[in-house]
Amino acid sequence: MRTHLCDAFGIEYPIFAFTPSEHVAAAVSRAGGLGVLGCVRFNDAEELDRVLTWMDENTDGKPYGVDVVMPMKVPTEGTSTDLSTYIPDDHKKWVDETLLKLGVPPLPEGEGREGVLGWLHSMARSHVDVALQHRPVLIANALGTPPNDVIEQCQAAGLKVAALAGAPKHAVSHVANGVDIIIAQGYEAGGHTGEIASMVLTPDIVDAVGPDVPVLGAGGIGSGRQIAASLALGAAGVWTGSIWLGTEEYRNLASNTGWETAFLRATSSDTVRTRIYTGKPARLLKTKWTEAWTEEDAPAPLPMPLQNLLVSDAHNRINASGDPDVISMPVGQIVGRMNEVRPVSEVVADLVAEFEATVKKLDGIAGI
């Protein structure tokens, strides 16, 4: 499984693991991959600083990365900083009425949480500033090409910069703007994703950016066989996400007691690609909450970041309810293979073992 990215990052396996959990990220790095901590959940730069300090101390000196959500275009001056003023009252009313219909109780007094500010450009920049005070080796941007000055800032500090792409033209643009690594995120992926499946997208992007730019295959990867397939398509490694939700370490973050029930019973058909989570197309677990947004009286999702601010309190209430029939969670179609909760180290070991068995089998077929 070893590729040139292993030497470039000082890792044993070219398995990059995106996760909002520092416990999962650290465990993946300790197991030989590269754990990449998603920073969007951090509304407070000081909290992120504490978590990255924990990462520094709990990865056994092994490398890790961070993932931010930053649009390339900087918001224009004069825009109101109170974004809630741009959310229509009718949208707020519909959300409240829908939660009532679904039987989702309000949060106990004092337990509400401010909207996820990590979706805002200014907060994402603070995430970068904090990260550079620690020792990540990679910074990835979930919204494509970061601003040019951010790319230069990270590269000057010795970090590689990665960006997600859902089409070859996006990958070409990323490279033209200085991005080091392209993440070819196929249609099957959880969270933000495009319309092209991984089997087609990965080789298209590999061919589009040429042999000198590493490509990570992403979307629907949850087994060693799928890693082997991605590398056969030309990828230099894989970017994984959903499979780490089904790990014991993720329980340190997850607050919804119904989440495990929801994904353990889900099939690969039980996801939906929709704009209701952030305002951009993202794949979520299909539940009564996602179905409500398809009803005739449902409003159209707002653009990013307004949609996330609109539904953030609803998601907090849903998570606190513990109802697996309502849960709102980004997850890829690989959820159909997430049938048990296991330690991160075991998941990594199984990925590697199945990869090696698959390559050996292919070698045998080629030798016939």
UniProtKB/TrEMBL annotation:
GO terms for molecular function: nitronate monooxygenase activity. It comes from the Bacteria. CDD domains: NPD_like. Pfam families: NMO. Transmembrane segments: none annotated. The keyword Flavoprotein applies. InterPro entries: Aldolase_TIM (IPR013785), NMO (IPR004136). The keyword Oxidoreductase applies. Keywords: Flavoprotein, FMN, Monooxygenase, Oxidoreductase. Gene3D superfamilies: Aldolase class I. This is Nitronate monooxygenase. The lineage of its organism: Bacteria, Bacillati, Actinomycetota, Actinomycetes, Propionibacteriales.
